[in-house]
Structure formats: C-alpha cells, structure tokens
Amino acid sequence: MTDSKLTLFICFPRTNYHSSAQLLLKMAMLHVFIFLLLGCGVAQSSKLVRVSPLQFSGEDTQEEDEEDCSVAKPRKSSTSIPLMHVQAKCSPFRNEKSTWLYTVLESINGDEQRYRAITRAATSFTTQEDAVLPLAIKNGDYIINLGFGTPQQSFYTLVDTGSDITWIPCATCTDCAGDVFDASKSSTYKYLSCSSETCQALGSTPTCGNYKCSIKQTYGDGSEVTQLLSTESLAVASQSMPAFVFGCATDRTGLITSTPGLVGFGRESISFVSQTANLLQKTFSYCIPSSTATGCLSLGKSTLSSSGLQFTSLLTNSAKPSFYYVALNGVSVGEDRVAVAAMEQSSGKGTIIDSGTTITRLAEPAYGSVRDSFVRQLSNLSRAAPYSIFDACFNFPSRDVDVPEITLHFDKDVDVPLPPTNYLISTNVQGSVVCLALAPPPKSLSDSGVSILGSFQQRDFQVVYDIPASRLGIAPQSCKGC
C-alpha cells in the first residue's frame, strides 16, 4: 500500500480583530487546521496493507498443480540443490489426497514438541547424555536429494538447522520402510571404530558392538534412531566429499520411522556445515517457497552475491553453540513497536532461527503485546474462536481488508516487512476465518525466554548463513526453483 500525500492550504481572511467574536473565529479555524493536519499525518504514516480473502483460500491453485517437476530433479553441474516441502507437488512423499492448507496446519502439530526440545537443549544442556535433540519428523520439514556411496545411491533427506549428525536408513535396519542404503554395494563405505577420534569426541553417548561406534539419538517426540557411525563418499550437486561422517541407521522407533533421512546443518564439528568447511566455507542459503512449489538450497560463497541482501548479526550462544541465534530487537505491528528480549549468553535465552519449526514463537511478554496490538488495530472485524496454537482469529469478510503490516527489526538496522501471507493463515478452505500466524511458548514454558523464528515467516525470502563473518543475510525473493 503506497502512502498518499495530501497538501492542505487554509486561507485566513485579512482583517483586523477588534472583537472577541472575531478572535474566537480565528482560534476555531486554527484548531480545525491543526486537527486536519494531525489527521493527515496519521493517515500518511499508517502502515497498513490491503489483503484479499482469495489470498487465504485453502484451494490449491492451477499454477501449483501444473508445476514442471523437472525443476525438482537433482542437479550435477551446480552448487544449488532443489529444496521442497515433504508434501510439495514434486515430492515423492506427497499425500495426493491432502491440500496444501491441510498440510501446513498439520505441520503445526509437531511445533510444541520441537519447541520443548530446543528450549531444553538451549537452557538445560549439561552433558551429551542430557541432550534431547530437536524433533526431526514433522509434515513441515523440507527435503533435498543427496548421493551416498560409490556408485551413488540417491536419498532424500530432511534439512535441519537444529541438528548436527546426518543419517540415512541402511539395509540392515530392522524397521526402515522405503529406500535404504546398501553399504555392501559401495566401495568407499567404512564404519568407524570405537577408538576413532570422532567416536571418542561424542563422549559417553556411543556404545560398542564388534568394535563399531554405535550411537542412539532421542528426538523431542520420543522417537529414537540407532545408527553406526560411518564414513562414505557424499555427492552434493556437483560437489563430491570423500570420507563424510554420517550415521547408518540400523533401528528406528516412533514417528521417525517414516523419515527418509536427515542432514544436520547445525554448527557442531560433526555437522554437514563443519565437515564441508574447506569446500563450502561454512556458507549456505535457502529460499523456501510459499506454496507447493520447489525452492532452492545454495552452498558456498557464491550465495553472498544474491541481490538485495541486508546483513544482520548471526550470534552463538554458549549454552547451545549448535543453534543459530539472531539479534531480533523488536516487532512492529503497524506503527506500534514491541521490544523483544535480547539474548542472554549464559542461559540460552534469545531468538533462534530454525528451519524445522513451522510457526514463529515469540517469548513473553513480546508475544502478548504483538497480539494485543494486532487485535486492537483490527477492531472492525469480529473475533473468531481460537484455533490450535493461534489465539487471535478473525471472521474475514468477502471483500478486501486493510491489516497492519508486521515488520521484524534485527540488529544492524535491518528491518524486514513480512508479506501478509507470512503472518496470516486461514483455518478453512474458504478463507473466511483467518488467524495471526504467530504463537507464544507453551504455557508450561511461558517464562523460557526463548523465541524461535520459524519457516512459515521465512517463506519467499533468501536467507543466507555466512558463519565465518557471523552474519545472516535476508532478502525478499520469489522462491520458485534454483
């Protein structure tokens, strides 16, 4: 919405004020002028955006249905990899009977468990044994295709900035459906022994059977993955990395049994980012589409040349150094600006940017202030009943509506206005009930002090992680293809 400018001229008659009546007339005219001027100022600075109910319809569009899936195929001559939602149009895991809206709403169900797991890891982590890793299996996750072994065996894996160890299901797995990696067919596969430096670095977590380094990971939903720590040749787009350390899953329990695999984009030494540092310089970016389209994951310094990037601080928290923290200083709702608590280095509090969380959670009291301001500015709409984790829902009319713009304020004077489709979500296919797509922490963790910037709010932005320079780049972009 473009602000309109109004020039106001008020002419006062030239006269001599010899009576109190004339003086009162002059003062009244002056008050009218001031009132109109202030009114124009409010309208001029008001940050409203106009939205149509059609923007929130839950029906899949013809454009989405007709997407050319050749753009989602693995590439051999690039450092960019197609990135897509597990329920995207071109995903091999898509449920054909499910609409995109239903998929998004379903993905929210795992957010609370993931928030609990991340909060515990960030604020209560003391030893490797105490670490409960973030939830990995959710309908809201995004996948890429990687090649393992010589010759290559192709696998889709979840991209998770909240995890470190990469793992795929192996042929010896007792409860692994779908594609599995057959180590016996690869000439470059090796398992790691318990005496290996990598295994020893994991502390007391590994167990040894036949001198092989075996580890068990427990995720936030109670799922477990038992895996042999191994090395293998890894192919990422046109890049090949020998002796890449990963987990060859031998047993899975819980919801994670339906997970194709996982690539950890965290910051620990065993993560994909750290292991490929010499080749890719600990720099990567992703562009998450706002629909069932295919987005893009880019690797290496070339991603820093993306147009329109603004760079803010990328921070490390001593309580959980694997997570990516950003300095989110405030959130504006229209003209109202709400402060967000700064990160506390010793306690793990702060704002984490995460690819595996769907909806942004704002720590209190920031969330309550944002919600109250949003509700107050939409007082012309009738309230609807809360839905799932959303407590600010409205009955949307069939006409266009002006809503307050929401802007994220980061360190280094980086202001990011969000598209309305990144902070409003419909709860039905008609788009007649729309909610503010932000949420507070679960009630039992209301004082956690941890905010998480989720993938729903990151859609249609190029998000660049420049770890050596400790900065995060953000630029609006249509995220369709590489």
Molecular structure report:
There is one protein chain. The protein is an alpha+beta fold and 482 residues long. It is built from nine helices and 28 strands. Helices cover 17% and strands 30% of the residues. Mean pLDDT is 84; it is low at 1-18, 30-45 and 124-137.
Question: What keywords describe this structure?
Answer:
single chain; 482 residues; alpha+beta; Cathepsin D, subunit A, domain 1; 18-stranded mixed β-sheet; 4-stranded antiparallel β-sheet; 9 helices; 28 strands
SSE arrangement:
Layout: H1 20-45, E1 48-51, H2 62-65, E2 80-85, H3 100-107, H4 111-124, E3 142-148, E4 153-160, E5 167-169, E6 190-191, H5 197-201, E7 207-209, E8 212-218, E9 224-236, E10 239-253, E11 262-264, H6 272-275, H7 277-280, E12 283-287, E13 295-299, E14 310-315, E15 325-326, E16 328-333, E17 336-339, E18 350-353, H8 366-377, E19 383-384, E20 393-395, E21 401-404, E22 406-410, E23 414-417, E24 424-426, E25 433-436, E26 450-453, H9 455-458, E27 461-466, E28 471-476
Parallel strand pairs: 4-11, 5-10, 18-26
Antiparallel strand pairs: 1-21, 2-3, 2-13, 3-4, 3-9, 6-9, 7-8, 8-9, 9-10, 12-13, 12-27, 14-15, 14-28, 15-18, 16-17, 16-22, 19-20, 20-25, 22-23, 24-25, 27-28
